């Protein structure tokens, strides 16, 4: 998308060819975990990653990468025990090798399990994530 920016670590990893965005809002300061998963090994590790941006703008500026939730250049988690209230965007991005079906929640949700009440999961649902054109 014109004007779209990527965090430096995502850009240097070459994960700037495709992207999907999700938004979540935190009403009070709290611990947060953002977790990017896939149901199988359809997309190889290193072909996808994510960045959390703290902003209310649809397309954040390069300086608005969350200083609490670190960008990750593969599937996995980022965590911080004290994330400020506000609006956040999760940019899931990939290179052109991320070819296959991968599902994501339509909206990241706060997980209410006893294990971690503040975990935001980007998990399988029913959407096609990255698929090369035939």
Describe it for me?
The structure is a single chain. The chain is mainly beta. The chain is 4% helix and 35% strand. It has one helix and seven strands. A four-stranded mixed β-sheet has the order 4-2-7-6, with no helix packed on it. The protein has a three-stranded antiparallel β-sheet with strand order 1-5-3, with no helix packed on it. The longest helix is centred in the N-terminal third of the chain and has 5 residues, at 8-12. It is globular and about 40 Å long. Residues 102-116 and 123-134 have low confidence and may be disordered.
Provide a quick synopsis of the model.
The chain has a four-stranded mixed beta sheet, with no helix packed on it. 4% of the residues lie in helices and 35% in strands.
């Amino acid at each position: 998308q014109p004007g779209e920016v990527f965090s430096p670590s995502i850009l240097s990893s070459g994960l700037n060819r495709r992207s999907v965005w999700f938004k979540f809002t935190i009403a009070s300061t709290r611990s947060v975990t953002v977790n990017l998963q896939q149901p199988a090994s359809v997309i190889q590790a290193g072909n996808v990653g994510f960045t959390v941006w703290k902003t209310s703008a649809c397309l954040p500026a390069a300086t608005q990468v969350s200083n609490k939730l670190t960008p990750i250049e593969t599937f996995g988690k980022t965590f911080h025990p004290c994330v400020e209230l506000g609006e956040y965007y999760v940019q899931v991005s990939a290179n052109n090798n991320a070819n296959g079906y991968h599902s994501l929640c339509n909206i990241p949700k706060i997980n209410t399990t006893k294990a971690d009440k503040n975990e935001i999961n980007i998990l399988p649902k029913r959407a096609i994530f990255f698929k090369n054109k035939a």
